[in-house]
Each structure stands twice: as C-alpha cells, then as structure tokens.
Predict the structure of UPF0125 protein L602_000600001420.
Amino acid sequence: MAIPDPVPGSIRAMVCYAAPDRIFLKEIELPPGATIDAAIAASGVLQAHPELDADALRTGIFSKPRPTDTVVRQGDRIEIYRPLVADPKTARRRRVQKARESGTREGQKWMRGGGDAQAVES
C-alpha cells in the first residue's frame, strides 16, 4: 500500500508507543509548528491506549527525551515512554543473587574467590 503524497506545507512524523503486549505505530501529517502534544492528539494513541495519562507522559524524539511542547520537524519519530517497572540497580542485584544461589559456574563468578580464577603468586 503506497503512502499518499503529503499535503503541501505539512510535515510528516511518526508516533510510536510500545505497550507490553502490542505496539502502536502511526504516521501522521501535521501543520508546520505543531508540537509533540499536537502529534500525540492527532495520532489517536490516547484513545487506543486509555491507560496512558496525557498529563504525565514522558516523550522523546529518536530516543532523546523531549518535553511535549517541543516543535515537531519533518520525519521525526515521536516516542512515548513507559515508566520503569523496577529500579535497574535493584533488578541487577536480584539477578546476581539468583545466579549465586543457582550454584552454576556462571553464578560462581560473582562470589569472592569463586570461579576458575587462580591467585598469582609473586
């Protein structure tokens, strides 16, 4: 299916949101000077994903965090970010602890004096 030519004087952008179970991806046309807020409203993502709070959205353009009053440019990919489920540092500690408790060789490298490392005598 071919994408129709843009309306003269308009800009094209893409709005994307990755929910845990599905992805929202829509190309939209906006008037020049439109903001991320306007792009999100035009895309219909808030209707497709009612769990999103329009007032608390964290957004970005091409993986760079941007406020919602940022002006959209031709070809921008506007991304809506979900909050972190767990603190990264805490999650890593849990993974290491689980590996230690498993007793596997991989888990042993996290223990002091564990693994195949040999002490070097001087």
Q: What stands out?
A: Residues 88-102 form the longest helix (15 residues). The first strand starts at residue 11 and ends at 18. The beta strands are 11-18, 23-30, 58-61, 64-66, 77-81. The mean pLDDT is 83.
